[in-house]
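Onboarding guide, step 5: your first structure request.
Type a short instruction followed by the sequence, for example:

Predict the 3D structure of this protein.
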Amino acid sequence: MIQHEMASFRHTHSKIIEGLDNHVLAAFIFVAADPCIVNLGPGYPDLPPPAYIKEGLVEAARVDRLNQYTRGFGHPSLVKALSQVYGKVYDRCIDPFKEILVTVGAYGSLFSTMHGLVEEGDEKSVNKASLTSADWVLDPDELASKFNSKTKAIIINTPNNPVGKVFTREELQVIADLCTKYDMLCFSDEVYEWMVYKGHEHIKIATFPGMWERTITIGSAGKTFSVTGWKLGWSIGPEHLVRHLQTVMQNTLFTCPTPLQEAIAQGLVREYSVMGSPDCYFSSLAVELEEKRDRLATILQSTGMSPVIPEGGYFIITDVTALNTDLSQMGDDDAYDYKFVKWMIQEKKLAAIPVSAFCGVDSKKEFEKYVRFCFIKQKKTLRGVSVAQPAEH
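The system replies with structure tokens like these:
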């Protein structure tokens, strides 16, 4: 019998993935398979996508040529549709072939952006470090302290996951002023752009003076049309930046599935014709989600938790410290929110995501009292939360 001594095997992982093996979603994904658990952890809908999107995929698959490779940087009909929709949003002409890249999800867009525009050792600033937990506003002094002449780029996320904050025009102007002052790039993750609630407005930082030429804006078909399993995203920006993202794409994933791109293209064309009206899915989904947000917030408050009402997106974070839950049996090594989520899954059959998983080392302790719930769910799923055993407090 041949015995393999794995301990002495000389091959190991590359440095680039150091510390990336323990992903929070992977750690809690097992709960999805248990039908007894109300799973409000991962950020995917259990609502059906628009019927015309599903029908569009069926029709696309029936066309033989659409089952083959398409243009690597984005299916022609899709980039043209994106150019139409976002040309209206930006109030500028967007070249569909030179200023747009279609990728495998928004993750793919961020991957292409970072590998195409950022060198190892370049300094990046991530906006979440400058959100104060007391009032969820951007702290301009703290943000400014992160910048210097060596800073290459800032990554922002609005509407924000997990907080649900929508950055105001004044806050975005602070960021824009720093970008122009230090001649930096801006990578703006705006995948929840259509999910903004009453009293708030999503504003694209790329529309600010001097920002188009230095901004890559990331969007998502999965979030736009509630088809997260399709994994289609896009990057929009000036040609002199986007061409480097295209280089990354052509040398890594090459292209995205043609039928999926065609179906999204047809969906965008349809919505473009009704943009700004209540019939537009971009508008109607936000109205539907606002009701779900308020329902879940009420349920969480009734258990003794303190939810932070989101301005956008489809997550709600809640402070669980008032429950004073005994977590002594959940181990000592994990952060408080990790232990609380494990306890809640085990004892209350309810799953969420610990918020400290989104934080850097410096801010992790500050956010251990929060857990995140997803509310883009059917009524019966949210009803499952209300009939779960009430939390102890």
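Each response can be followed by summary notes, for example: The mean pLDDT is 89.
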